[in-house]
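Figure 3 (text version): structure tokens given as input.
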């Protein structure tokens, strides 16, 4: 009755974006997903471990931020899937793709804030770096995702920077 191995059936994708451009976009979105996941994990870690006089306000702020970031992960991964590629989903892949490095130990509250500023700015740079190929491919849905992420990361970085002034 045939082989016991099931072969994945490739269904042609014809959405008006070439295979080559979809692949280039997905490479960028995969880096964005890795940066976003690393930022999510960092923010959640800091939520759990923040101490000091700013505990309550930072604990609550970080919770709002990691919740927003968690929801964004799905948006980015599902855009990768819509373009016809598997989304990265392991820590190993995220470490290889991310521009943000994991934080060792438990920093003091102000250092947490600075690390988060740096990480939000890194995610913004990664999102912005994808626009050229997205624009060239006439990929408005991905451009919309990038614009939304840029708005959130730049605003969050500004709010966090304000805590350090």
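Below: residues designed for each position.
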């Amino acid at each position: 009755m045939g082989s016991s191995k099931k072969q994945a059936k490739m269904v042609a994708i014809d959405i008006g974006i070439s295979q080559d451009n979809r692949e280039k976009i997905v490479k960028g979105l995969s880096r964005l997903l890795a940066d976003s996941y690393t930022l999510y994990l960092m923010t959640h870690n800091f939520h759990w471990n923040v101490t000091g006089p700013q505990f309550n306000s930072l604990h609550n702020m970080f919770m709002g931020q990691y919740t927003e970031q968690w929801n964004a992960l799905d948006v980015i991964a599902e855009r990768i899937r819509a373009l016809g590629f598997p989304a990265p989903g392991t820590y190993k892949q995220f470490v290889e793709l991310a521009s943000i490095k994991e934080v060792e130990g438990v920093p003091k509250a102000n250092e947490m804030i600075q690390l988060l500023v740096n990480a939000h700015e890194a995610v913004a740079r990664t999102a912005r770096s994808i626009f050229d190929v997205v624009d060239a491919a006439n990929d408005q849905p991905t451009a919309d995702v990038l614009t939304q992420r840029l708005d959130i990361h730049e605003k969050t970085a500004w709010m966090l920077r304000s805590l350090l002034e």
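The chain has six helices and no strands.
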